[in-house]
Design goal:
The protein has 129 residues and is of the alpha+beta class. The chain contains four helices and four strands; from the N terminus they run H-E-E-E-H-E-H-H. It has a four-stranded mixed sheet, sandwiched between helices. Helix 2 packs across helix 3. It is globular, with a radius of gyration of 16 Å. The C terminus is likely disordered.
Length: 129
């Protein structure tokens, strides 16, 4: 089970993460990652699984699998991030290992994009600006 402190629970938070976060896509899933204001706050995960994905049994199975993947990712991601998984209908056909690989790829790539300075920042620091 994913601890309560590591869950996105408010609709406004979901909206902010999806709209203003870094987006990484893989077949069947889109991962949105946003850095939180305070780095010492625990990383939170959210899950968007619409009815287009399938019946309730399928949606809940995918959500449970993503929660398990999120729990595994907590030590790797560190603290201070919000991550939302938006599941597409193709994900209903994915096995656990494929879903884990795609969620892990998207999460870690999004965190790296945020943590790494942009190319413009890197060039400015090299030229002494």
């Amino acid at each position: 089970m994913l601890p309560y402190a590591n869950r996105v629970t408010k609709g406004d938070d979901y909206q902010a993460i999806v709209r203003r976060g870094v987006r990484v896509g893989a077949r069947g899933i889109t991962v949105s990652v946003r850095e939180r204001e305070h780095d010492d706050t625990p990383t939170r995960f959210g899950f968007i699984v619409s009815k287009r994905v399938g019946v309730a049994v399928v949606r809940n199975r995918i959500r449970r699998r993503l929660k398990a993947v999120s729990r595994e990712l907590l030590p790797e991601v560190g603290s201070g991030f919000d991550i939302v998984y938006r599941v597409h209908p193709e994900a209903a056909e994915l096995g656990f290992d494929d879903l884990r690989e795609r969620a892990r790829f998207g999460s870690l790539r999004g965190v790296r994009r945020i943590a790494a300075p942009s190319d413009a920042d890197a060039r400015a620091s090299k030229s002494g600006r």
